[in-house]
């Protein structure tokens, strides 16, 4: 009996350490990324691509995309809040703040670059810039979330690079693939594997 006690004690200590490590990982990761919200945001992205393609001027094209981005942001925040509330979390906790700060810098840079490009009348590089900067934001913010979020960022950046390397006329298609297709695909995956 005394020979088995150390094994039992060791096993118990290992279990406790595993529990502590898992609890620390959960508290340091932002898990309120909404899968259903991503799917809805993807639907908004596909709708925006369709509507933007029908516009007669570049300014109207830009207005469609900016309006859609604002709507998708509100939708994403709502579903994030809903998922966090369902899990007993808040969007003001340390992991949520780190996620938001990681996303903020690239998104602010994207807004400034969009304004500068609009002022210069250069609309052809907006799509690639948006995809690359959004991807950079998701990748950076994803350092504080589950690993699939980082893959979303990488995929957005890959689509952005593809948009840079192809003719500017394909920009709207790449935006549809990124803001539509990637959001829907990863949203379905997150909803299935990570809830909500």
Secondary structure: elements and pairs:
Layout: H1 4-28, H2 35-53, H3 58-86, H4 94-120, H5 126-141, H6 147-165, H7 171-194
Record field, number of beta strands: 0
What is the CA–CA distance across the termini? 49 Å
Contiguous low-pLDDT stretches (5 residues minimum) are 23-28
Sheet with the most strands? Answer: none
Number of helices: 7
> Gyration radius, to the nearest Å?
21 Å
Mean pLDDT rating: 85
Q: Which percent band covers the strand fraction?
A: under 5%
Which percent bin holds the helix content? over 70%
Order of helices and strands: HHHHHHH
Number of domains: 1
- Give the structural class: mainly alpha
Shape descriptor: elongated
Explain the overall architecture.
The protein is mostly helical and 196 residues long. It has one domain (31-194). The protein has helices at residues 4-28, 35-53, 58-86, 94-120, 126-141, 147-165, 171-194. Helix 2 (35-53) packs antiparallel against helix 3 (58-86), helix 2 runs antiparallel to helix 7 (171-194) and helix 5 (126-141) runs antiparallel to helix 6 (147-165). The longest helix is centred in the middle third of the chain and has 29 residues, at 58-86. The chain is elongated.
Nutshell version of this structure?
With 196 residues, the chain is mainly alpha-helical. It has 7 helices and no strands.
